[in-house]
Automatic annotation (TrEMBL):
Gene: Cldn19_1
Chief location: other
Superkingdom of the source species: Eukaryota
UniProt key word Signal: yes
Protein name per Swiss-Prot or TrEMBL: Claudin
Matches recorded under PANTHER family: CLAUDIN (PTHR12002)
N-terminal signal peptide: 1-22
Entry's localization field: Cell junction, Tight junction; Cell membrane
Entry function: Claudins function as major constituents of the tight junction complexes that regulate the permeability of epithelia.
Membrane-spanning residues: 61-83, 104-128, 148-171
Amino acid sequence: LAGWVAALAAAVLPQWRQSSYAGDAIITAVGLHEGLWMSCAAQSTGQVQCRLHDSLLSLEVHIQTCRALMVISLLLGFFGIIVSVVGMKCTKVGEEDPITKSRIAVAGGVLFILSGLCTLAAVSLYATQVTYEFFRESTIPINARYEFGSALFVGWGASSLSMLGGSLLCCSCPAKERRGQQYHRQSQPSTAREYV
């Protein structure tokens, strides 16, 4: 759940890339931030102005791809939360059979892992593009280029949490429970005979 909330925060935040403060002139009056949905300019006085991206089709390909991956990640994570709640042993929703419930929990874990992979792909793709543009030979001075924003680090953390949570859910394998139930059923009649 924390991974999904962090992925939602990373998708909404406009700090996917920010103005670089490298180079000689490090004091600038305006700091620029860009995200998947909007770009912002922060004045040295503390005033922030944001503007939504005007057109979907005029955006660069990597931004459109990252947008799609983040939306898919959030949808997979949302369905993963619902399926995982149904598959928990402490809930009375759905099947009462523990084997079926554990299989549902494993399905929720798979959805969380896929959600984390989509978040990881989106954030890494964007970071690769930022790195390429920063080190590319161009006439733009270094202090006018962009570097990693805080939303990228939030996204990496979100993908790690989602994949870790999904892996833990996938560890509730139904085959072990089935073996334990068969052993429990076979052991009960033998103990009952001893007491009779």
